[in-house]
Write a structure and sequence with these properties.
- This protein is an alpha/beta fold and 394 residues long.
- It folds into three domains: 79 residues; 67 residues, no CATH class; 209 residues, Rossmann fold (3-Layer(aba) Sandwich), CATH 3.40.50.300.
- Helix content is 54%, strand content 11%.
- It is built from 16 helices and eleven strands.
- It has a five-stranded parallel sheet, with helices on both faces. A three-stranded mixed sheet has the order 2-1-3. Strands 5-4-6 form a three-stranded mixed sheet.
- A hairpin with a 5-residue loop joins β4 and β5.
- α5 crosses α9 and α12 packs antiparallel against α13.
- It is globular and about 75 Å long.
- The relative contact order is 0.11.
Length: 394
């Protein structure tokens, strides 16, 4: 049960909500995973208290932050927690919502900014609004204010990307993100992070589609479907138990499996486009040729990307690390078939290049996320406006 927090300044009582504290920590510049973890720990700590004041809560949070974040983030949190001013943002329909620093920061990240850049821009905007005593601002004025700050603090390209992303949001068109890559390159992790930043709640794994198809199709009818993507070649007709692995065999087996699963992928994508909802489809079975069978693109924006880990040693480390997340024998199996996985990655990268699909190296997670988002913004560029007067009319 939520505990009650008493605001000393007004004597008002409101329930402690982990989500609100998580959002406040994110506003201060803390990543979602850490913010949620800290908020959960604090909820456990105060669980036996019937009441707690805001100043007491602030002290508890600050003590937790000292061990895990820098002083400037702590100061940012204290400053924000001490200032309870609410600034309302009014849209063209005269609907008003409170200005959300976390939403503004995510919008900055969606425009291709790093976390630090996004935090800095959002904090500057908020402090400027407080300094001039604003209690209400139109969404267009806020957009113009953000654009001008990006123009002066960063550069014109960043400011243009913000306008393009804002125009895309106003359009209501769905965004379909396709993330491919072999085992161990971080597809699901990147998909989750990009979905969080873009506000996309629907994410579909091709591995899950394969599992459903396996249930529906007996192994005797489609043996290639009941194998892993990197050793599907062993289940092809005419392949003996002692057949040596070759690059062409690995590719042929993968393509056969990907062709089968493409039927389910196409159905998922068609449904999303028909319903006009954004979706992320991720998995090794995203072969760039899938782009050729998609329906008319006028109603949706399709943004493909191929992830890679270009150093063999680094990819092996990633596969070894999977022993911490899944059963250890599965990680061992990946390493035993590393040659096939490496050959498959080489093929997927060559195919991505052939179909003009951006390739993103995932050595550093945050850098990879930023690169993926920049590539998606580049895909939006031809379709949307970067004219400030069109996107945010004065």
């Amino acid at each position: 049960m939520s505990k009650t927090i008493v605001k000393n300044s007004e004597g008002m009582q409101t329930p402690f909500l982990r989500g609100i504290l998580t959002s406040s920590l994110m506003d201060a510049g803390i990543e979602f995973d850490l913010a949620y973890y800290l908020a959960s720990k604090i909820r456990q700590q105060i669980n036996d208290k019937q009441q707690i004041t805001t100043s007491e809560l602030r002290e508890i949070v600050t003590s937790k932050l000292k061990d895990v974040v820098t002083e400037d983030i702590i100061e940012r949190f204290i400053s924000a927690a001490s200032n309870t001013s609410t600034i309302m943002v009014t849209n063209d329909e005269k609907d008003s919502v409170p200005f959300s620093r976390s939403q503004h920061r995510l919008c900055m990240e969606s425009s291709g900014l790093s976390s630090d850049e996004s935090n800095s821009i959002t904090l500057t905007i908020y402090n400027n609004l407080l300094a001039r005593g604003s209690s209400e601002i139109s969404s267009n004025e806020l957009g113009r204010m953000t654009y001008q700050l990006l123009l002066s603090e960063l550069d014109e390209n960043v400011a243009k990307r913000y306008l393009i992303w804002s125009d895309f949001l106003h359009s209501g068109r769905p965004l379909i993100i396709l993330i491919g890559g072999t085992a161990g390159v971080g597809k699901s992790t990147i998909a989750t992070e990009v979905g969080h930043r873009f506000g996309i709640v629907r994410t579909q794994s091709t591995d899950m589609l394969r599992e459903v198809m396996r249930i529906m199709t007996p192994q005797r009818l489609s043996p290639v479907l009941h194998t892993s993507s990197y050793n599907a070649w062993k289940a092809q007709p005419g392949i003996g138990a002692d057949e040596p692995m070759t690059e062409q065999l690995v590719v042929d087996g993968y393509l056969r499996q990907a062709e089968l699963i493409s039927v389910a992928c196409e159905a998922i994508l068609n449904r999303a486009i028909k319903e006009q909802v954004s979706l992320i489809l991720e998995g090794v079975h995203f072969h760039p040729a899938l782009l050729e069978i998609l329906p008319n693109m006028d109603s949706a924006i399709i943004a493909p990307v191929m992830l890679s880990v270009l150093k063999a040693g680094k990819l092996k480390e990633r596969l070894k690390g999977r022993g911490q997340e899944v059963q250890e024998r599965r990680a061992k199996r990946y390493l035993e078939h590393f040659s096939e996985i490496w050959e498959l990655q080489s093929f997927l990268m060559a195919e991505a290049d052939r179909y003009n699909v951006p390739i993103v190296s995932n050595i550093n997670k945050e850098r990879a996320i930023q690169d993926v988002m920049k590539n998606i913004n580049d895909i939006l560029f031809p379709y949307f406006s970067y004219d400030i007067d069109e996107v945010f009319p004065a």
